[in-house]
Design a protein that fits this description.
39% of the residues lie in helices and 14% in strands. α2 runs parallel beside α3 and α9 runs parallel beside α10. β8, α7 and β9 form a beta-alpha-beta unit. The strands form two sheets. Strands 3-4-5-6-7-8-9-10 form an eight-stranded parallel barrel, surrounded by five helices. Strands 1-2 form a two-stranded antiparallel ribbon. It is α/β, with parallel strands linked by helices. It has one domain: Aldolase class I (TIM Barrel, Alpha-Beta Barrel). The longest helix is centred in the first third of the chain and has 14 residues. Phosphoenolpyruvate (PEP) binds next to loops. Manganese (II) ion (MN) binds next to loops.
């Protein structure tokens, strides 16, 4: 217990307010960062076409899953390395920074070389070996909250990365498991003020995985920004029928445009 307290204090009491940056983008709530893109990269053409439109709409970072942590081993697992290469190509074409989810320590080299932000998914928040290894890099890490994690556990996972040398961390609230079954998860917006009271780390909100349903995404994006979040991450497709995963929660470009203009 004593040891946990000490580690916790290290993060909580930290006074260093160094801004977390991805290229020229600064994660602070004065200008919320918009991360958008497909849940899963499905094809080169789809991704490139979507990426060009997203750039025009004015998003800040392009997302796209290449390796997907699916609940069922029988579900599509993502295009893997091929998908990641398409995302890298989309970055070259649009100039947008990119973010993608990492699964294991042996992928770190490729991710460090090619992506701007490495995403650690909800299911890997407790993968301490991965967190320690990411701590040895200097890449910005997006650390999603485990769907059954307390704030304390989440911050301690961040601390695994920090303790190993990398303090470029952005936290992401993505909904937690509750007794409610109508929505995929329950968006815990209290996370934003609570995390800000305990830590200097920026926090963004992912209403797509929290809600699981497209009609909830827009109001929750606005609520997230109102709560003081430093950004949002949204699953979007040009043509929703192209979504190979998480179709029900995917919004279209028109909705994304409206969200961005309302935020501004
Ligand atoms: C994702 O953002 O692609 C994802 C799988 O989310 P989570 O880890 O929050 O389930
Ligand atoms: Mn998804």
């Amino acid at each position: 217990m004593e040891e946990i307290k000490q580690t916790t204090n290290y993060l909580y009491s930290r006074k260093n307010m160094k801004p977390i940056q991805v290229g020229d983008l600064i994660f602070d709530s004065s200008k919320p960062i918009i991360i958008a893109g497909p849940c899963t990269i499905s094809s080169r053409d789809n991704l490139l076409e979507l990426a060009v439109e997203l750039k025009e709409i004015g998003i800040d970072i392009l997302r796209g899953g290449a390796y997907k942590p699916r609940t069922s081993p029988y579900s599509f697992q993502g295009l893997g390395d091929t998908g990641l290469n398409y995302l890298i190509e989309a970055k070259k074409v649009t100039g947008l920074p990119i973010i993608s989810e990492i699964m294991s320590v042996d992928q770190i080299e490729k991710y460090v070389e090619n992506v701007d932000v490495i995403q650690v998914g909800s299911r890997n928040m407790y993968n301490y070996e991965l967190l320690k290894a990411l701590g040895k890099t200097r890449k910005p890490i997006l650390l999603k909250r485990g769907f059954s994690s307390t704030y304390e556990e989440w911050l301690l996972s961040a601390e695994y990365i920090i303790k190993n040398g990398n303090d470029n961390i952005i936290l992401c609230e993505r909904g937690i498991r509750t007794f409610e079954t109508e929505t995929r998860n329950t968006l815990d917006l209290q996370a934003v003020p609570v995390i800000k009271s305990k830590s200097y780390l920026p926090i963004i909100v992912d209403p797509s995985h929290a809600s699981g349903q497209a009609y909830i995404v827009e109001p929750m994006c606005l609520a997230a920004i109102a709560s003081g979040a430093d950004g949002i991450m949204i699953e979007v497709e040009k043509n929703i029928s192209n979504a190979v995963c998480d179709k029900e929660q995917t919004i279209n470009l028109e909705t994304l445009k409206r969200i961005i203009s309302k935020i501004k």
